Amino acid sequence: MPAPAKSDALLEAMRAELERSLAGLRVPGSPRPYYLLYSLRRTEELVLQAAHGSLLRRRHRTRNHLGADVRVGSHAFDNVMDGGLDDEAEERESADWLVAPDDLEPMALRCALWKLTQLKFDEAIADYYDHRKAMVAEYLRDEVASFTREAPTRHLEALDTAPLPIERWAAELVELSKVFLDHPEVYDPELSIRADRIHRWQTDTEGARVRTCDLWLEFEVRGWVLTEDGVYVEAARSVPTRSVEALPGPEGMRAELDAVLAELAELRDHSSSPGAFIGPALVSGQAASTIFHEALGHRLEGNRLVARGETRTFAHKIGERVLPEGLSVFDDPTLERHGDQALWGSYRVDDEAVPAQRAQLIDDGVLVGFLRSRTPLPAHALRPTDSQKREQPRSNGHGRTAGTQRAMARMGNLIVEGDPARAKTQAELEAELVALAKAQGRRHALVIHRIRAGETSTDSYDFQVFKGELAHVERLDVETGARERVRDLELIGTPLSALHKIVGFGGVPGIDHGYCWAESGSVPVGGVSPALLLSEVELQQASRTGFHEPLLPPPFADDGSRGRRGGLRERGRRKRR
User: Fold this and answer.
1) Same domain, yes or no: 212 and 350
2) Residue at 116 is within a domain
């Protein structure tokens, strides 16, 4: 659709206030601003949730938020220290002045920017002198220049303002959710559609003029069952898209719902894991993508290489082998799809007004680069050809923020590719898995199909570990070939050790998506990876609290017998607890 008439007027208003601020913000004896960036985000948020034939939630709102990056001093030395990781922007006074006027009237917008810029300027002056103090009081080993020089970006997209089909979606969810009336054994069921549509305007003192439009959509089915040993276990399916047309219709939604009901039945009939595990594992592409995201991706974010509180796991490993031969890794936000699936981490211009670019990170197992924002990298994190140049390599378009925090280098679409000549079939990987377990004298190996969520720690105060919550894992008896689904397990590991234990890869690539949290907030990301064979993984027992069944069944399933009936499995006499 064509852009609203106000779009250009908004950029003009932002540019005018930007020029006025750059010229007028002066404090005798203090550094002047040398760079300013303004951003405006208009976010349309939708949440629809249904269960038992009822619409539980209908939340639809639009919010307008401002952003301002004020830098004083020079490109060589300014107010930003530690790559901006410790800014704690949400705790500052300026965080209370980020709301833009609802009607986006240009003069009201300029007034809001004027107030925000004054506060940001005051904070920048204070930060500048704190940075100077640190230069005297500490030995900053990885101190680098403060900000790269970039060519101005001109990128203006049409803004989609078509109404979302809320009424149709709500009706479809309500009708489909009646299925849960036949499954009282499913606790807290939910069918949901979530949407975020963001219109973004950016301009800076280097001449950037950016206007973008993005839509993220997700259909999700979720539910819980109570197992015989008193543990609530969850099953979920989701379908992420980037367009209204790609969201599944009633038949596609029903297929996802049936898959969740089937999985809940399987989970209810399986016991908890017998305990912690160590041994070989075959990890599907979706789960492998999560491992790469947590163990590798966050540690290749360039801002972490200059922050005092970070461990910089890979900072001195440029040119060294960090993965097996045949595996390469890159991050490419310009990729919108992989096969027939949309990628959630796609964008055209980052939050520092730099065009999105493919960043090669690992080539045939050798580390060759990092995700870069406009924060320069230390010399030891550059390839020899780069470090010999007079100018610091520029940003590769990965400066991202959720809006409030300072932008930093973040993942977009992290893609792991395997050399087809070295890739193995699923059957070959499973045969090698069994052989590994037998060679290690182990009775069991694991097949990990899905990881629900992951987390990691990169700061120097904590242990360098990552963790993945397993959604679907099977224990394989290597003698009999029997497979048993086990639950209540978490994958744990240290990054270098985990990556070193990859001994094979192949199969159909798996795709992952979600929101990634870090110091610059929550941003949508995507990931692609082939299946991995690891010679050793460690799993720990997840913390689980025991519960008893409710004393009464849900009202729609009460037949007066004081027992629960359900479609997943019929129960006989209720057990005493």
Assistant:
1) no
2) yes
